[in-house]
Amino acid sequence: MSNLGDFHIHTPFCPHGTTDSLSQYAEKACALGLTAISFTEHAPLPNGFIDPTPDQDSGMSPDQVDAYIQAVQAIKETYKNRLTIHLGFEVDYIEGFEEDISHFLDTYGDVIDDAILSVHMLKDHTGKFHCLDFSSEAFGELVTVFGSVEAVYHAYFQTIERSVCSDLGKFKPSRIGHITLVEKFKKVYPYTYSQAMMQQIDCLLSLIKKEGYSLDVNTAGLFKPHCGTLYPNPTVLKLAKEKQIPLRLGSDAHQASDVGRRFQLSLIE
Ligand SMILES: [Zn+2]
Ligand SMILES: [Zn+2]
Hints:
Elements: E1 5-9, H1 22-31, E2 36-42, H2 65-78, E3 84-92, H3 98-108, E4 114-118, E5 121-123, E6 129-131, H4 136-146, H5 149-165, E7 175-176, H6 195-210, E8 214-218, H7 234-242, E9 247-250
Parallel strand pairs: 1-2, 2-3, 3-4, 4-7, 7-8, 8-9
Antiparallel strand pairs: 5-6
Helix pairs in contact: 5-6
The structure holds zinc ion (2 copies).
EC number: 3.1.3.15
Protein name: Histidinol-phosphatase
Keywords: Amino-acid biosynthesis, Histidine biosynthesis, Hydrolase
């Protein structure tokens, strides 16, 4: 897989995205001179999981999956001489729903070229789930429920660790999505990493390396008004490079004009 690609792109099948067509995304990638892209639409959330966001639109509707696969397979064929297109998903790791997630992956694994495993949902001590990146107000509720900003960070990185260790079957995604997404509202809820937290992240990165995962180097955070930082943040990215974890660029585009935004090879080399 060439590094000159955008390996985290959403599509019109995203219920909270735009209606930009697959070919608009592909055209933008070609115009930028990228050689490969991955469409990584949010996989449907597990059966029985209640999406805590107000519009319950975090994942693709299950009845759209076949249409999504057909559409990506068709565009793959159309662009085959100009652009390598991977069919993929961004799969949510949700604590306690491993069986259902594995079932989804087993069902579609044969056609998946590339996939990302992300944490957007955090479970609190009562068993209730919260969406980490929905809004600064929702993040504020998380801080109240967990007791402090640091406790939210701790729970987030712990959930990522669980995602890395989880058994999701043979089609488990091999790339970890936006590993510092917890910083999305850091201008509203500032946090300075403690030594203990950096230690936790260092262990997590060592685990990621040992288990053979790669990292999504996601430029979306640079454009979030309350963040302004790459995911992973520069310190974590430097650590990941020192540990020689494979890195893949991703824009997390939810509209075609965002493909490849702020990409530089230096981010992953
Ligand atoms: Zn999305
Ligand atoms: Zn995501």
